[in-house]
Amino acid sequence: MKGILIKDDMATLDKASRNGLVVHVSESRSEMGARAASDIAHEVRASLHKQPGERMIFAAAPSQSQIIADGRHLPPDTLAVMLRSKTVARAVLISDLVAITGLPPGQYETSVGGKVDLHPDGRLNISGSRYLAGATTTLNDSIAYVAAKTGFSLGDALQMATATPDVS
User: Fold this and answer.
1) Is the pLDDT at 110 greater than 80, yes or no?
2) Are 53 and 59 in contact (CB under 8 A)?
3) Residue from 117, 114, 93 nearest 40 by CA
4) What ranges do the domains of the chain cover?
5) Which class does domain 13-96+137-163 fall in?
6) Better-scored residue on pLDDT, 37 or 2
7) How far is 117 from 165, CA to CA, in rounded Å?
């Protein structure tokens, strides 16, 4: 599927959505009527705990979202609010798993993140920064995390990871 980037052109995004095009967006653009949103929190920076407002608005938008639930991309309370806002039917649990998962802590070179630091707790950062460079948590572990930390049942978490169709 080919796509175009519509940067800060809400009128075009709105027109495309109203005319039946499936618009795939990230971050807060889904309030314009897009059917799917990608990687909610994929680009969440270290300051999320200070400024979660935009992502909360995004979470409440009537679109489907892919959500990384690894315990690092989003704090547990933010994750719980987003999942409740989306509902089981509109939340798709995904993984941001990288190839160095399972390797010992250290500095690595990756094809998507360049130099990265893998910490003993599994956190993966762009080398020398606090920015995430992917995840080392498997989808199975993310399902367990959702069930343990958000108030959703294991069955709900399984549905979000396996049975909720991704329309993106």
Assistant:
1) yes
2) no
3) 93
4) 13-96+137-163, 98-136
5) alpha beta
6) 37
7) 34
